[in-house]
Specification:
Chain lengths: 293, 302
C-alpha cells in the first residue's frame, strides 16, 4: 500500500562504476562547475543582504566592499518607521493564508470529482481547466477587472482572494496525486457504506498530505510574491501588500539604497524560511505537475 | 427478459447519481473558476470589437480596433521587443536548465543543496529581485561594470539606462530567475529514462557526448516539449519583471505587449482597444502552442 502511495521520487540513480582515475577528474570538474553556478545564482542575494547592513554611503563603493563595515543594524529598525511595513505584512499574511486555505479546499474537492467519480462530461470539463493554464492572465486581465469592479470587489482584499483562490493549478496538482491512489481502496469503503464525501474527508485527505503540503506552499509563495494583482486592484494604502508597498517605497526613496535592500530582505525572508523548511514539497509539487507534459 | 429494463434503469440511475455527486464536488471550485476566469475570457472576445473607453459604453465597432492596431507604431515596437525577449530567453533558459539538470543528475555530494540554490530565485519576489539587479547593473558604481572594467572592458554597457542594453539586462535576469524551475522539470524527466539504455550505449562504445545525443535527448523529448511550450507562453506574456525593472524604458526599448495592454487599459482607460491587443497576445500564445504540439506529434510518430 505505502509503496503505491509514494509520490514520484526524484532520487538520483547511481551510475555504474567507471575507472576511478577518470571518474575523479570528472567529479572535480563537476564540482567546480557547480560551485561557480551556485555562486552566480546566490551572488545577488548576498549583495542584497550585505547592502541591507551597510550605511547608505557604503553601498556603492569602488572597489566593492564585500563585508559591511560597520554593520548598520539600525536599518532594520528605521524601515519600520519610514515604511508602513506592519500594515503591508499583515495584509499579505491575511491574503496568503485565506487564498491557500480556499485553494486547497476547493482544489482537492474538485480533484476528487475529476479523479474518482465517473460521470459524463468530466473529461471535457477538465480540458477546459487545463486550457486556461495556457491562456495568459495578461490577456484577460482587462475584462476581469471590469467584472470585478461591477461586483464591487476592486480595491478590497477580496479581489485578490477571488483572483487567486480558484485557480486551475490546484485542481490539476491534486488530481494528479489522487490518480495514484488505487480505486480498490475507495470501493472497499463504498461497500462499507461510506458516502463519497466521507471517502474524500476520511481517506483521500489523510492520504494526500504530501500533495496538500506541496499545493499549500506553492500557493502561499505565489500569493505572497504577487505584484500585478495588488498593483491593479489595491488602490487604498491601508490594504497594500508587501510587494506593492515595497515598490512604492522604492519609488519615493530611490536614493536610500541600504533601506531599499533592508525592505527587500524583509520581503524575501519569510519565503526563504518556508522554502528551506519545506523544499521537498516544492520540488515534488513541481515534478508532479510538470511531468504531465 | 424482465430483468433487462431493470438493469438499464439501475444503470441510468447510477449515472445520474454519479453526475450529481461529481458536480457537487466540482461546484465550489468551478463556480469561482467559471465566474472569475471563463467569463472574463469570453467577454474579452466581445470587448475587443467595441470602442469602450472611460467616456462611453461598449459600442460595437467591428474590426476598427484591429485596423487601428495595424498602424500603431507603439504596438509594433512592443511586439518586436516581445519577440526579441522570447528569441533569446527561450534558448538561454533551455540550455541553462538542461545543463544544470545534467550536472545535478549525478551522485555528487551536495546535489540537494545545489538544487535548492538553483530553485531559490524562482520563488523570490520579482520586486525585490529587480531592485537588487538594478543596483548590480548600475552603470558607474555597480559591481557588474566594476568587474567588466577589471577584466579590461574600458566602456562597459549602461544596462538598464541604455536603450541598446536594457533588453539584454532584462533577459539575463529572466533567465537567471527561471532556469532553476525548468531544471526541476528536466531532473524529473531524466528519472524516466531507463538506465539500461545507458548501459547498452556504453557497451556499444558510445562516449559521453554520443550518449547525450542518442539516449538522453531523445528520452527527454516529452519534457523538452512541455518546457518549450511553457517557456514560449511565459516569454510572450513577460510583464512584471519588465514593469519593475525598467518600466518599459528607456524610451520604449523594453516595452512589451503585456505592458502595452496594461498601459492602454489601466492608464488610458481604453478598454476596447486594450482588449484587441489582448486578443493578439492570446492568439500568439494559442497558435504557438498548437504548432509546437503538431511538431511534437509528428516527431514522436517518426
Amino acid at each position: 500500500m505505502t509503496i503505491l502511495l509514494q509520490p514520484p521520487s526524484l532520487e538520483i540513480p547511481i551510475e555504474p562504476a567507471r575507472p576511478p582515475q577518470r571518474g575523479r577528474t570528472k567529479r572535480l570538474l563537476g564540482y567546480a562547475v557547480l560551485i561557480v553556478a551556485a555562486a552566480a545564482i546566490l551572488l545577488p542575494f548576498y549583495w542584497m543582504l550585505i547592502s541591507s547592513l551597510k550605511a547608505n554611503n557604503d553601498v556603492y563603493t569602488i572597489p566593492v566592499k564585500w563585508l559591511p563595515n560597520p554593520v548598520v543594524w539600525k536599518n532594520y529598525v528605521d524601515i519600520w518607521h519610514k515604511a508602513d511595513m506592519t500594515t503591508w505584512l499583515k495584509n499579505t499574511l491575511i491574503l496568503s493564508f485565506a487564498v491557500t486555505f480556499l485553494q486547497v479546499l476547493t482544489g482537492s474537492f474538485a480533484a476528487y470529482g475529476f479523479a474518482k467519480v465517473r460521470f459524463p462530461g468530466r473529461r471535457v470539463l477538465f480540458l477546459a481547466y487545463l486550457g486556461t493554464i495556457a491562456v495568459p492572465w495578461q490577456s484577460y486581465m482587462i475584462p476581469q477587472f471590469i467584472l470585478f469592479s461591477k461586483l464591487h470587489l476592486s480595491d478590497t482584499l477580496w479581489s485578490i482572494v477571488a483572483l487567486q483562490a480558484f485557480g486551475a493549478f490546484g485542481v490539476f496538482l491534486m488530481k494528479q496525486y489522487y490518480e495514484t491512489i488505487p480505486d480498490e481502496l475507495l470501493d472497499a469503503a463504498r461497500i462499507d457504506g461510506m458516502s463519497e464525501y466521507g471517502i474524500w474527508r476520511r481517506i483521500m485527505l489523510p492520504l494526500s498530505v504530501p500533495a496538500i503540503a506541496s499545493l499549500s506552499l506553492l500557493t502561499l509563495v505565489t500569493t505572497w510574491n504577487d505584484y500585478l494583482g495588488p498593483l491593479i486592484y489595491l488602490r487604498s494604502h491601508s490594504i497594500w501588500t508587501i510587494q506593492i508597498g515595497l515598490k512604492t517605497f522604492v519609488n519615493s526613496y530611490n536614493a536610500e539604497y541600504s533601506l531599499i535592500m533592508t525592505g527587500s530582505v524583509l520581503s524575501v525572508l519569510p519565503i526563504a524560511v518556508i522554502f528551506l523548511l519545506g523544499q521537498r514539497y516544492f520540488v515534488e509539487g513541481i515534478a508532479t505537475t510538470g511531468l504531465k507534459g | 427478459m424482465t430483468s433487462m429494463p431493470m438493469v438499464r434503469r439501475g444503470r441510468a440511475r447510477l449515472v445520474l447519481r454519479n453526475t450529481a455527486v461529481g458536480w457537487s464536488f466540482l461546484l465550489p471550485n468551478f463556480a469561482g473558476f467559471a465566474a472569475l476566469t471563463l467569463v472574463p475570457v469570453a467577454l474579452l472576445f466581445y470587448y475587443a470589437f467595441t470602442s469602450w473607453n472611460v467616456f462611453g459604453g461598449a459600442e460595437w465597432t467591428g474590426l476598427d480596433n484591429f485596423r487601428q492596431l495595424s498602424h500603431d507604431h507603439s504596438f509594433r515596437t512592443a511586439l518586436t521587443n516581445t519577440v526579441y525577449y522570447t528569441v533569446f530567453h527561450i534558448p538561454l533558459t533551455l540550455v541553462a536548465a538542461l545543463g544544470l539538470a545534467l550536472l545535478l543528475n549525478r551522485k555528487l555530494r551536495g546535489v540537494a543543496f545545489f538544487r535548492t540554490v538553483a530553485f531559490f530565485p524562482y520563488i523570490t519576489s520579482i520586486v525585490a529581485l529587480a531592485q537588487v539587479w538594478n543596483m548590480l547593473f548600475s552603470p558607474s558604481y555597480g559591481p557588474i561594470n566594476q568587474f567588466l572594467r577589471a577584466i579590461g572592458i574600458a566602456h562597459p554597457p549602461g544596462w538598464t539606462t541604455s536603450a541598446d542594453w536594457s533588453m539584454p539586462a532584462v533577459i539575463v535576469v529572466g533567465t537567471w530567475r527561471e532556469a532553476g524551475y525548468y531544471m526541476l522539470l528536466f531532473l524529473a524527466g531524466l528519472q524516466t529514462i531507463p538506465t539500461q539504455l545507458y548501459e547498452a550505449a556504453r557497451v556499444d562504445g558510445a562516449n559521453a557526448w554520443q550518449r547525450l545525443l542518442a539516449v538522453t535527448l531523445p528520452g527527454l523529448r516529452p519534457t523538452t516539449f512541455f518546457v518549450v511550450v511553457m517557456l514560449t507562453i511565459g516569454s510572450f506574456k513577460v510583464f512584471d519583471l519588465i514593469l519593475v525593472m525598467t518600466n518599459g524604458g528607456p524610451g520604449q526599448s523594453t516595452l512589451v505587449v503585456s505592458q502595452y495592454i496594461y498601459q492602454k487599459g489601466f492608464v488610458e482607460n481604453q478598454f476596447g482597444y486594450a482588449s484587441a491587443i489582448s486578443i493578439v497576445l492570446f492568439a500568439i500564445c494559442f497558435v504557438v502552442t498548437v504548432v509546437q504540439f503538431l511538431i511534437n506529434r509528428r516527431g514522436s510518430e517518426s
